[in-house]
């Protein structure tokens, strides 16, 4: 009985992979993501070293959509456009034992333009891999909540000056065709967001009151050199696939 069940499962998998639809020329994905920050984006606000050497982020989320236009008869190669809104955050209590709460937020509207290779464009399960040139357009805020000298709760909020960074992303995934028009996509991307455009304060830097800047370039304060920072993260995602412009089947004569 167990052997029979195993055989049924094997045949079911072979059918799922072997059965095919014609590869659509145009695919859209609507997706949600979880963002896993890597050093130097990831940091502990209660660690004094991390306050200097990282951007103090713990986790994040994202949502957005992408479109893919496949070329040629085989439709293995696609041009991709990806639009995401990403939110990174870290909320910590009693920062550096000063008896105050801190909320650190870093948001980014992300645009990616790239190419993709689909391994099984006619299969119901289609693995793919791709690379993108990305633009991250950052905003954010930093909020302190604590007690003043009279014991009253006070909150100070600082807004980040908008900043642009450019980088690359490498991704892979699986597209599961449930029907000719609808499917499910699951995948992950590795983002290195600030290959181009790193900044640090200098003599020309001007900020408004309660404003700060995204500092990721190496700079020196007195005799202390602060190292540059990489804004990198892993982004697993899950989404809905919509397929358009499937090739028409030739009529039999």
Structure summary:
With 253 residues, the protein is mainly β. It contains two helices and twelve strands; from the N terminus they run αβαβββββββββββ. It has helices at residues 2-18, 48-53; strands spanning 26-37, 59-71, 77-92, 101-118, 125-147, 153-160, 163-177, 182-196, 211-212, 219-221, 224-226, 232-244.
Percent of residues in helices: under 10%
| Spatial sequence of strands, sheet with the most strands | 1-2-3-4-5-7-8-12
- What is the molecular shape? elongated
Percent strand equals: over 45%
Structural class, from helix and strand content?
A: mainly beta
Main beta sheet, described?
A: 8 strands, antiparallel, barrel
Q: Report Rg.
A: 24 Å
The average pLDDT score comes to 87
Number of H- or I-type helical stretches: 2
Distance between the termini: 47 Å
Q: Uncertain segments of ≥5 residues (pLDDT<50)?
A: 7-19
Number of strands: 12
Order of helices and strands: HEHEEEEEEEEEEE
Description:
There is one protein chain. This protein is mostly beta strands and 253 residues long. Helix content is 9%, strand content 56%. The model is unreliable at 7-19 (pLDDT under 50). The strands form 2 sheets. An 8-stranded antiparallel barrel has the order 1-2-3-4-5-7-8-12. The radius of gyration is 24 Å and the shape is elongated. The protein starts with a helix and ends in a 9-residue tail after the last strand.
